[in-house]
Amino acid sequence: MQKVLKFLIVVVVAATVMFGGRWYMYVAQAESPYDEVGIALNGYAPAPLRAWGCHKMQARFPGQLPPYGCAGADGRSWM
Predict the structure, then answer these.
(1) For residue 39, with 0-12 CB atoms within 10 Å meaning exposed, 13-18 middle and 19 or more buried, which class applies?
(2) Does 69 fall in a domain?
(3) Is Membrane tagged as a keyword (predicted)?
(4) Which domain does 17 fall in, by range?
């Protein structure tokens, strides 16, 4: 039982690091806000992380339309 629990913990931590790292790379260093994988990962992020990521991308890409998940009610303004 302990081996199974340790294995599950390692898998959860590894997945969190892998997907979290990829999400952060999208938010902080992507060349475009329209990266499909980044948009999908941002969509699955908890609301506070998604809001932080959208605000960071808005500062990095001020003249562009927001990607899906970062758009306001009209679809053309950032959240």
Answers:
(1) middle
(2) no
(3) yes
(4) 2-60
Q: Are 34 and 57 in contact (CB under 8 A)?
A: no
The first and second tokens of residue 40, run together, are 């999908």
Q: Map tokens 């609301």 to a residue.
A: 47
pTM of the model: 0.80
* Residue 37 amino acid letter: V
Task: Compute how many other C-beta atoms are within 10 angstroms of the C-beta atom of residue 45.
Answer: 18
What are the pLDDT digits (tens) for 1-40? Answer: 899 999 999 999 999 999 999 999 999 998 989 989 999 9
Number of structural domains in the chain: 1
What is the DSSP code (8-state) at residue 62?
T
**What is the average pLDDT across 55-74?**
89
In this structure, are residues 45 and 23 in contact, taking their beta carbons and an 8 Å threshold?
A: yes
